[in-house]
Amino acid sequence: MKPKYLISLLLASASYWMYLLYKPFLMSIIIASLLAISTSTIQRKLEKITNSPWVTF
What we know:
mainly alpha
């Protein structure tokens, strides 16, 4: 067996098992990622106005 095929097989196997492991949490991870992306511009504007990344409202 060529090393290229062995590495591809290991990668596919690891990806499948990671999918099974994180399957219950995938929707929450996707929603959290979308919320982080959609509010990043607001966060940058607040940081620019307050001159501090630690100020929260």
